Amino acid sequence: MTELKATIQNEAGIHCRPTAEIVKEAAEYDGTVTVEAASGSCELGSALELMMLGLEQGAEITIQVDGPSEEETAEKFKKLFETNFDFPRPGQGG
User: Fold this and answer.
1) pTM, whole model, 2 decimals?
2) Tell me, what's the pLDDT at 84?
3) Total tally of structural domains belonging to the chain
């Protein structure tokens, strides 16, 4: 198992749209990704559970990855949680 710390950067926290992107990435991974925060923990298979953590800007989390390519996968999720999401993204239209 690999663990990494991350800090939520998005101004609005991890709301519906960032959650959708994070859970989509987790669905493509052939292993388990878990997030722990002061408010609780969840596996990234459930958008509802992730949103219920109430991750606001500045919240610190621990990402745990268990499966193939753990280090690479943990880094990918760290980047996702530390992304300052802007929707719609430039060039994607409205």
Assistant:
1) 0.88
2) 87
3) 1
Provide the H-helix boundaries in the chain: 16-27, 47-52, 70-81
How far apart (Å, rounded) are the C-alpha atoms in residues 51 and 8?
13
**CB-facing half-sphere around the CA of 70: CA atoms within 13 A:** 11
Residues 5-52 have pLDDT tens digits of: 999 999 999 999 999 999 999 999 999 999 999 999 999 999 999 999
The domain in which residue 29 lies consists of 2-81
Q: Is residue 61 part of a domain?
A: yes
User: What letters, b where the CB count within 10 A reaches 16 and e where it falls short, cover 2-34?
Assistant: eebebebebeebbeeebbeebbeebeebeeebb
Domain CATH code at residue 53: 3.30.1340.10
